[in-house]
Amino acid sequence: MLLLQMPKLEIRSNAKPSTFAYPPNLEEKKVDRKDKVETAILSITAKHKKKEAEKKKDEEKMDVVILHF
After folding, report:
1. pLDDT digit string, tens, across residues 22-69
2. CA 1 – CA 25 distance, rounded (Å)
3. Which of 10, 14, 40, 58 is most buried (CB neighbours < 10 A)?
4. Which residues contact 21 (CB under 8 A, 6 or more apart)?
5. In b/e form, how buried is each residue of 37-60, taking b as 16+ CB within 10 angstroms?
């Protein structure tokens, strides 16, 4: 059985240690926006509201008078 060994190396550098350091962690910016968002109106909803408005107009036109004899 043959054992392979890594050679021992020693390296000297005049560079700053920060050159080889890990970069700092990124900070997530928290944005607190309280802007109102426009809601989407579906065509079905618009049609339904239109029908309801027509029904209310028809009910207002009809005056029901009950006479008791």
Report:
1. 988 888 877 777 777 777 777 788 888 888 988 887 776 666 667 776
2. 46
3. 58
4. none
5. eeeeeeeeeeeeeeeeeeeeeeee
Q: Which residue has the tokens 């060994």?
A: 5
Specify burial of residue 24 (Cβ count, 10 A radius: 0-12, 13-18, 19+). exposed
Predicted structure pTM score: 0.30
For 17, which DSSP code? G
Q: What is the DSSP letter of 57?
A: H
CA distance 13 to 67: 109
